[in-house]
Design goal:
two-stranded antiparallel sheet; alpha+beta; 71 residues; 2 helices; 2 strands
Length: 71
């Protein structure tokens, strides 16, 4: 939302997977996880900090750009 984009659930999932891959490529390991309440249940989700904002922004841009090309 900070980037002025509204995402579908599918787009958000694709972005999350890409951020995880970018993180692994940058740091050589999977991101740490934390418990978060999602869709009525507590689930383990990846944890990112302000330091990782660039990876997240890159993933959002990449996923939205690919979506626009494929339409």
């Amino acid at each position: 939302m900070e980037m002025g984009q509204r995402l579908t659930q599918g787009q958000a999932l694709a972005i999350g997977k890409l951020v995880s891959k970018l993180y692994h490529g940058a740091y050589g390991q999977a991101p740490s996880k934390h418990n978060q309440f999602v869709d009525g249940a507590v689930r383990l989700v990846n944890s990112y900090t302000e330091e990782h904002r660039g990876l997240i922004a890159d993933a959002v841009r990449a996923c939205l750009y690919c979506k626009q090309i494929s339409q």
